[in-house]
Amino acid sequence: MTRESAISRATRHFDEGRFIEDLARRVAIRTESQVPASRPFLDVYLKQEIAPAFEQMGFRVEILPNPVDGVGPILLAERIEDPALPTVLSYGHGDVIRGLEGEWRGGLDPWKLKQEGVRYYGRGSADNKAQHSINMAALETVIAERGRLGFNAKFMLETGEEVSSPGLREFCEAHRERLKADVLIASDGPRLAATRPTLYLGSRGSMNFNFSVTLREGAHHSGNWGGLLANPGIVLANALASIVTREGRVLVRELMPDAIPDSVRRALADCTPVPEPGEPEIDAWWGEPGLTAAEKVYAWNTFEILAFRTGNPDNPVNAIPGTASATCQIRFVVGSDPESFIPILRRHLDANGCEMVKIDMARKSYMRATRLDPEHPWVKWAAESLRRTTGGKPAILPNLGGSIPNDCFSEVLGLPTVWVPHSYAGCSQHAPDEHVLAPVLREGLQIMTGLFWDLAERRDP
Fold it and tell me: In this structure, how many other beta carbons lie within 10 angstroms of the beta carbon of residue 330?
């Protein structure tokens, strides 16, 4: 009954195929939260697949309705061994993005886990079914090896993350006392690199905007009206060019952070993004000058044009369009005030003669930015645990480059948040051919088993 024997047990769980059997069964359940017809499968996943697995581990399980009508339920599993022991809260999401059947390459079905070499293909394999399955299997391994966890565990699994987690914040507010814990340890998103175990401590926020120019109804022949009618596509293109340069530097400096904290710079000093084979090469000339690649994506704000439309791009005609629109996005870090973004952009557009350009939020809400200090004691403890298991220094990212609902845990519940991802950036999540890598799954089981084993032996500094 040692740390090493527990990790060996976890390794056998993968090598003997039991983990893959669980994952295949879970991938087969069509938990598409964006597809109304798939709504019943969200209940099936929690009631028939996840709840029994936790109950076999001695957890008390309850499936609760989402505070927002029409959104899938939330499962809460609890194993309280002794109120005096430390308590860890874990999180995952059982819903997936649309399956996109017919768009996967030949021989692949989004609802059938298929192995090709070191890759396992299937919808939700990376996001997030393999990830929470790893953490569940690690808890089971520790219980089997030690006879108990040695700490209290609470595990929350939602089914609305792929539609921006509506109701999750309200759920955490309503169940604040029940969700009380010492730390959040959860898994989602990618590692810095497939071969390097990673911790991240929050996420960048995200706000989407609609820019639009409406000058008239219908289109008018460019031979008769060219040079006489203002072209909304050109007006909008110039408005956006006044916000960001052709090299990706944001010109509206009020949208940018004041500075990068020293502890964040130190953490990112050895975290250089390196594309895996098949991933795009990094454009070193793009983005904020003077920053490292890691600082650009993990410690700074970006402005992106996600879509731009004027006229009929699929069937252009010789006519001046009457309207133009663009969907844009700001990814932002802690220290930025997202409530100020639209007023700042409105002032900028007006000052640059772009009064006819309208701007509003593309969605009713936005994802908040969160970040735990990389030098926090929980971070140091987790990093040492990963080092003991793998023999190498893990990457420590102050926050993920993307966005997750971490504010529900860091702000509403007031928890330090430590995320241990079990995927990689080239996994094709949200796209056809989503997959996970067998070496990352295997190592993830070892890492989480070691982490949960160490949690029972942790002493507050």
Answer: 22
**Boundaries of every domain in the chain:** 3-203+369-457, 205-257+301-361
Q: Report the Cα–Cα distance between both ends of the chain, in Å, rounded.
A: 26
Tell me: pLDDT of 461 over 70: no
Half-sphere exposure of 50 (CA within 13 A, CB side): 37
What residues have CB less than 8 Å from 371, skipping those under 6 apart?
201, 202, 264, 333, 334, 398, 399
pLDDT in tens, 138-180: 999 999 999 999 999 999 999 999 998 999 999 999 999 999 9
CA distance 78 to 90: 10
Helix residue ranges per DSSP H, 262-410: 262-268, 293-298, 341-351, 377-390, 407
Q: Hey, what amino acid is at 406?
A: N
Written out in words, the top-level CATH class of the domain with range 3-203+369-457 is: alpha beta
Pick the CATH number of 205-257+301-361 from 2.30.42.10, 3.40.50.720, 3.20.20.100, 3.30.70.360: 3.30.70.360
Distance CA 33, CA 266 (A): 39
Band of pLDDT at residue 460, cut at 50, 70 and 90? low
- CA–CA distance, 233 with 214 (Å, rounded to integer): 10
